[in-house]
Every structure is written in structure tokens, then in C-alpha cells.
Amino acid sequence: MKQSHDENYKHRDLDWLNFNKRVLQEAQDRVNPLYERIKFLAIFSSNLDEYFRVRVSQLRQIKKVEKSLRKKLVFKPNKKVKQILTEVKAMQADFGKVFHDEIIPDLAQNGIFLLNEKDYNPKQTNEAKLLFQNVLKPKLVAQIISFNEEKPVFLENDTIYFFVNFKGDNNAGLVNIPFPDFGRFYVFNDKSKGYYITFIDDIIRLKMNEVFPGEQIEGIYEIKMSRDAELYIEDKYDGELAEKIYDSLAQRTNGQPTRLLYDATIPQKPLKALRKHLQLGKVDLMPGGRYHNFSDFFDFPIPENKLNLKKEKLKPLKHKAFLNQEDYFKVVQNKDVLVHFPYMDFTVVEEFLEQAAQDQSVTDIKISLYRVADESKLTSSLIKAIKNGITVTVFIEAKARFDEENNIIWGRKFEKLGAKVIYSYPKIKVHSKVFLINRIENGEKCRYAYIGTGNFNSETSKIYCDHGIFTAHEKATKELDRLFKVLEGELIIPRANHLLISPFNTRRTFTQLILQEIDNARAGNEAKIEAKLNSLEDQEIINLLYRASQSGVKVRLLVRGFTCLRAGVKGLSENIYITSILDNYLEHGRIYVFHNNGNPKMYMGSADWMERNLDRRIEVLLPIIDDSIFKELREILNLQFQDNQKARIQDYLEDNRYVTQAQGEKPIRSQVKIYSYLKEKHKA
């Protein structure tokens, strides 16, 4: 039966939920250490909060579009939102089951007890009362909600509140749950017979009668509002885009509601009164558990004698090309250098820039920053370079979601010190992860570049799997120089023939490469496409991959996040096989390989196969022409394709089933194998 247009593509927002199910699978997996499972519950919660603030809010915004235009959509936004809510409710139930039926008992078996206020012994009760009186009570903001008033109370975005149900129908209480210096959890002082932890929420519950004296309290329930995270700014600007964004950040706090998460034990009558008071529809409500903001479990306390309940940290490797080398420029001039994070130490990037900042032969440094870390060696090196008289050009992405404020603050710092700072343009983001260093050697100008898949951020480099290449290759550095001239307004088009630079030549090149594989397959030759990427959404690329499959091209993909392509469908995509790996680290790299009739072509860089990455963002991908680097990336890719421990099949069944280890086959957990491979390769 021929499939309809809609059936050929998975909706990205529904398939993203499928990705978050894989995160939940990691929390369910008893192979993972206990505190790793807790961490994955925190990731699941954090992901879901952002999802409602960004993706669900966008679906809700479609309702404001004229009806005549909405009719042209392949999907109905309201129907999708209902599907999403159904899926999320089921996932929340699984989440609660893991937490209550597995995590809490496993903690207890290890002498770690998470108590609520009903579990406190007399000594703990007294300690909790003192903490409430001295630390928590001064930070509480309590108010009475009158359901008869037309003006609703305002719930701040992602802030947890107690909704306190009083006896009677007209009023209720509302009180914030503050965060003291020690965070969400409190560890009781008496540890003689165990390690006792409580939510600060429960200490407040214990003393709620003091918060609302004179009221008859019938129930205490947590609620949390998520608000629209997007900044809706007009395309035409009177001033700088960065200024507009900075001034508009309050929209995120005051944005329209996208979800009210509530304790599912709230009785229907007060819940209905609260919903109407907040002027919400039924579709805005999401039942949850007793506690919200599980992302706080990133900082769940652990006893010093129980560190075995966490994963063993891998010691970052040093690249042997840089070992005992004082002159990194000389190393890169001789040969391109490939690095991998978090398996390798990110300090190699920081040290390269540090050398450049102190090198009298360096004339200028140009860098694109997408997510700027707080104080870091990298930012310190750029500041040092400015002070040493080097011309520093910093391209700041002002629209990097949730990092806008920090990025703009850093941009202003660099400007004050004398750097040339360029902020992003209204309709395009700069997502590339590149820097360029110009240096005078023997009277001639030499260029050095770094092109990577991950942000210049030492913190995220510890959890994101990324690749990067240092190069002095003439064509690559010349074209990267042209790109920076485009960003600086000196050129309109970078005229790239070697690099792939979006939105200029990336789509066209990928299209030609896929069509070439189709032609090779039709001519009876071996034809293959292999790729590792974060997300697959672009319909033009998907249609080309469907054509490739139908022509006999073998397509093997590793997609970490969502994919809109339906793999394994007879007559449409039976030659396409997709897996997704989720393990200790977040897969973030992008590698593309085309068989090319036995003369394979490989690219590595920042772009996914998404419309925005191909058409609306500045992205850079580097062709891999160095044989040893090609081989290294090829072997890493093969290890990931062979993963039979943490890989899940992504096909039309959408069930996240694990790749099974065949009889006689060795277990391959690719992230562990990659570390071992690199350790052996780079041993001194």
C-alpha cells in the first residue's frame, strides 16, 4: 500500500520524546551505577522542562496563525499536543516507578535514606525545625489566593511552589520553595546508622502551619509552571540584535504558560479552581509526582565512602603529537591533528590559544563562540591576546538558546578590552565551532585553524563526545579566512570549494554526493552512505535517502537524537538502518562518509541534516584528506556501528529496542572501546 506524505515522515517532536525514553532506559538499566541512574532521571527531567518551554510552546504558537494558513499544515497542532501529553503522561508514570520502586530501595540497601517529614525521628525533627526557623523561613514568600479575584497570581517560570488547600472553597495558599546555599537537599547531622537525606520541601511541609497560621490546611501539593522560552523579536531592527535580545530576556520569565505540572494527588475541586484562577485550559495541565524539578538530582548528596556508586571517571588522554612539545604551531604545520573529547583533554585547545596569545609572531586571532563558558582558560587567553596587542575578532552568537545573556555579557567584556566583537544577524545563527590564527613566519603569512563539532566550552567537553581537527592546510585555512570576512561584512559569499560552509554550498554538495551513490548503485556498483549525526529532519535529504534506498544504496546511520526518517519500510527504506547510542556521554559529533565507487569521501564538522543547519546557520564541515585521520575516524565510526550494548534500533516500529548481541559475538560498548582504542594509540 502506498504511504501518504505524512506517513513517510515521523514528527520531530514526537520522535524527540522517543529520544527522552532512551534517557529513561538508562535510568532503568541496572548495569549503570546507582548514582548514574539518578543522573539520568535528572537529565530526563531537565530535557522535558526544555521540551515544554521550546517545542510545545511552538506548537501552541501555531494556533495564533490565520486559520487559512494552518489548514496547509500536514499535521494538526492541537492533535500533536494531545499526542505529546498522552506520551508524556505514560513516561512520567514509568519515571515514578523507577524512582519509587527501584532507586529509593537501592539507596536504602546502601545505607542511604531519603526521608520525608513523616519519617523523621525526634532528633531529626528538631534539627529540621531549627533549619526551617533559621534558614528557610526568612526566604519564604507566602500569599493567599482568592479564587473570587479576576486577576490571577503570577507563577514564575520553572519555580516550584506549594499549593496549600485550605478548608473552604474560596481561598488557598501559595508559597515558594527557596534554594538555600546547600541546594535542594539537606543531610542530617546524625550519620551513625546511615546517611539520611531530605528534600528541603519536606522541612517546609513540616512547618506549614507556621507559614499560614490560623488556616485549616487540608493538603499540601507541589506545582510548577513552564513558560514559553522563545524570544519573539521582529525581523527588522532599529538597534543591534544583541541589545534587542538582551532587553527581551524578561519575555522568557513572563512568557505564556506551556505546562502546569502538579501533584496528581490534588483533589479535583481545588485543582479545577486553581486552573480557572490561572486562566489555563485542561490541555495545560500535566499530572506529576510529589516532587518536581528532578533536575536537582544532578547534585544529590553522596557519602564519601560510597563513591563506588558513581561511574569511574576516565582519565582524559593526552594526544601524543603534542606530548613534550613546546611549539604547537610546528606540530600542526607538519601534520593535521585530530582530537576527541571527552576521551582527550580539552586543555589542548586552550593551550593552543594560550600559545597564540603570547606569540609575538601571531598577528590576529578570529573565533566563533556559540556557548561561552563562564571564566575559563580560553576566555583568559583571548583577553591576554588583546592585552598583548594581537588583533582579536570574536563572533558571538547572540541567539544561542538559554545562553544569550552570558554570551552578550562576554561580548561586552571583549569589546571593552579592545576586541572586535560581531554579534549574530537577525535571520541566521553562527553554529560553527572554528578559530583561525594568522602568524608571520619567515616574512610570510601562515594560517592555522581549528574546526570541530563541539563548542569551545571546557565544561561541556567533559560530557559531550566531539571531534576536532587542528590544521594548517592551505585551502581549508584560506576558505575559513573568507568565511570570517563574510562574518565581518567584507565579503558576501566565502567561495568555498574545499570546505562545506552552510548556507552556501553544504546542501548542494550533500545532494550531489547522495545522487552519485544512487547513480553508482544503478550502474551495478557498490554504493554506501554512512553518517553519524545528532538529528535528521530535512525532508529534501530524507527524500534523497529514500531514493537511494530504493536504488540499492546501503544507508547506515547513527542518529543520537530524533529522526524524521522512517527506516526499514518495505518499498520505501528497507536499505536504511539506523541506531542511536546513549551511554555515559552524549554523542555530539557529525561524520559523513560516501563510498564514491571505492574512493570514499568523508566530512566532519558542525552541521546536522536539518533544514536549519543547511539553510539558516553558518556551519563548517571539513573534508578528511589525511589518510591517518580518515582511518582513525573510520575505526571510531565502525566501533559505534558495532555497538551491541548501548545501541537502540531506530525504525518504523519506534520501540527503542536494543541491538542484541549475537551468539558468539563479543560485547561491544562503543564508548568504552573508543577510549581503549585511543589510549593504546596515544600511549607514550
TrEMBL record:
Residue ranges of every copy of the PLD phosphodiesterase domain listed in the record: 426-460, 583-613
Post-translational modifications reported in the UniProt record: An intermediate of this reaction is the autophosphorylated ppk in which a phosphate is covalently linked to a histidine residue through a N-P bond.
UniProt entry keywords in alphabetical sequence: ATP-binding, Kinase, Magnesium, Metal-binding, Nucleotide-binding, Phosphoprotein, Transferase
Residues at the active site: 431
CDD domains tied to this protein: PLDc_EcPPK1_C2_like
Positions bound to Mg(2+): 371, 401
Top-rank taxon: Bacteria
Family membership noted in the UniProt record: Belongs to the polyphosphate kinase 1 (PPK1) family.
Physiological role: Catalyzes the reversible transfer of the terminal phosphate of ATP to form a long-chain polyphosphate (polyP).
Protein name: Polyphosphate kinase
Species name: Mesonia sediminis
Gene name, Swiss-Prot/TrEMBL: ppk1
